[in-house]
């Protein structure tokens, strides 16, 4: 760069103006270019500096108050938090209705079987002939229907014929001898036409309790159980024990 170019750059930098501002000023007083020699003539630096000052003074001044304030609009953003997830329900064991009913029925059946097995024979109820209803002796005797015949038996675990009659009468507060022969000798003998339910029916070797009509309740023989049945004895003796 030539000496003239370097000086021009220095002047522009010191005045704070760009080259375009200088170009917009009054016609430059710089010497015209010598077309023959291709060299710049001498530049009047004082004139350039004066023009720069004039341009600055002519520029409008921007004044800002010391307490000036400005505001910046802010967009309001509302954020709705996502709802908390609902807790997962605990698994519930559901049995099918048919299976539940099956278990219930099985349980009830087992309970009924157990109660029936544990119930003493005297708690069993039976159908008592109409003619025998109202007799305390018959009511007591009917409790033991189904108890097996046991030779020499005198308890609800097993009876023979005289063991059964003596046990039933004892429940009614009446004492009878142990054997059928001895029982045939007590009380008052009455005709069959006057017999009432609860009277004794005796034949040699066997004794039963009259149940009214043509029926009796007794312990028949080994292999049988206490039961109501027809009077089979021929010409039996009816006995009433007060």
UniProtKB/TrEMBL annotation:
Q: Which GO terms describe its molecular function?
A: cysteine-type peptidase activity
Q: Which InterPro entries match?
A: NLP_P60_dom, Papain-like_cys_pep_sf, Peptidase_C40
Q: Keyword set for this entry? A: Hydrolase, Protease, Signal, Thiol protease
- Extract the ranges annotated as region (Disordered): 77-130
Residue ranges of every copy of the NlpC/P60 domain listed in the record: 131-242
| Biased composition, class Low complexity, residue ranges | 94-124
Q: Sorted alphabetically, which Pfam families does this protein's record hold?
A: NLPC_P60
Q: Which residues form the signal peptide?
A: 1-30
Q: Which SUPFAM superfamilies match?
A: Cysteine proteinases
**Biological process annotations from GO:** proteolysis
Family (UniProt): Belongs to the peptidase C40 family.
Q: What is this protein called?
A: C40 family peptidase
Per the UniProt record, the lineage of the source organism begins with:
Bacteria, Bacillati, Actinomycetota, Actinomycetes, Micrococcales
């Amino acid at each position: 760069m030539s000496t003239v170019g370097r000086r021009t750059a220095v002047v522009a930098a010191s005045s704070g103006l760009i080259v375009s501002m200088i170009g917009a000023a009054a016609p430059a007083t710089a010497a015209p270019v010598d077309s023959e020699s291709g060299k710049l003539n001498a530049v009047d630096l004082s004139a350039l500096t004066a023009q720069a000052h004039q341009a600055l003074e002519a520029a409008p001044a921007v004044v800002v108050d010391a307490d000036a304030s400005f505001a910046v609009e802010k967009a309001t953003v509302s954020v709705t938090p996502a709802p908390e997830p609902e807790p997962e329900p605990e698994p519930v064991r559901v049995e099918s209705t048919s299976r539940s009913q099956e278990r219930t029925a099985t349980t009830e059946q087992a309970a009924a079987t157990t109660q029936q097995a544990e119930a003493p024979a005297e708690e069993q109820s039976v159908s008592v002939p109409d003619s025998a209803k109202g007799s305390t002796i018959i009511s007591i005797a009917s409790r033991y229907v189904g108890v097996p015949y046991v030779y020499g038996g005198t308890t609800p675990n097993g009876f023979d014929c005289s063991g059964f009659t003596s046990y039933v009468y004892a429940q009614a507060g009446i004492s009878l001898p142990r054997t059928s022969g001895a029982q045939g000798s007590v009380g008052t003998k009455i005709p069959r036409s006057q017999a009432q339910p609860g009277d004794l029916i005796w034949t040699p070797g066997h004794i039963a309790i009259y149940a009214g009509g043509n029926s009796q309740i007794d312990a028949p023989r080994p292999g049988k159980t206490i039961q109501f049945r027809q009077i089979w004895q021929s010409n039996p003796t009816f006995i009433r024990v007060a």
